[in-house]
Write a structure and sequence with these properties.
CATH class: Alpha Beta
InterPro entries: GAF, GAF-like_dom_sf, Phyto_chromo_attachment
Number of strands: 5
Shape: elongated
Number of domains: 1
Oligomer: single chain
CATH topology: Beta-Lactamase
Pfam families: GAF
Number of helices: 5
CATH architecture: 2-Layer Sandwich
Distance between the termini: 44 Å
Helix content: 40-55%
Protein name: GAF domain-containing protein
Radius of gyration: 21 Å
CATH superfamily: GAF domain
Length: 179
């Protein structure tokens, strides 16, 4: 049986506590860096695209997610925390986005989309929609979405390229994206 002195025990205990605190601090710094990158990205996209809203929809479980970041032209367009409609995003849609699908809708009233999807987009005041996937090595992490709320809008190839580049920038360092 080995006996340790009180000073030995205190030192080992303090070292363990310090390591734990360092891990917490490292995660906090990483999260702050991630949040700043996402906030800067969504703000720059909204300003450059002159869109009413740019959001990041994060998947926290198998195709269940929510809007975790948004940049708005007006606070009346806020959908922060929105989870979408139940079961609207399924394996079929996920497979499309995993394959790199970009969805650009110039006018939800004219686009041949499911009625439930159109109703959902109306409920969050969307008239035109541009969606690109955020793909990390583990798969589909989230969606980067631009909304034009007040009128139809034809999304240009430059708009699409800008959104794709932003999504790739966010995905490039997937370590910072871990929530």
């Amino acid at each position: 049986m080995q006996i340790h002195s009180q000073s030995e025990f205190s030192h080992n205990s303090n070292s363990h506590i310090e390591q734990g605190l360092q891990r917490v601090l490292d995660r906090l710094v990483k999260r702050m860096h991630r949040d700043a990158l996402i906030r800067q990205t969504t703000n720059q996209l909204r300003e450059t695209l002159q869109a009413d809203r740019v959001v990041l929809y994060y998947f926290y479980s198998q195709w269940y997610g929510q809007v975790t970041f948004e940049s708005l032209s007006n606070n009346k367009f806020s959908i922060l925390g929105s989870t979408g409609t139940d079961n609207s995003f399924n394996d079929e849609y996920a497979a499309l986005y995993l394959a790199g699908r970009v969805r650009a809708i110039a006018d939800i009233e004219l686009e041949p989309i499911q009625t439930c999807h159109r109703d959902f987009l109306r409920s969050i005041k969307v008239r035109a929609n541009l969606v690109v996937p955020i793909l990390i090595p583990k798969g589909l992490w989230g969606l980067l979405v631009a909304h034009h709320c007040q009128e139809p809008r034809c999304w240009s190839s430059l708009d699409i390229e800008l959104m794709q580049t932003a999504a790739k920038t966010l995905a490039k360092d997937s370590n910072i994206l871990a929530f």
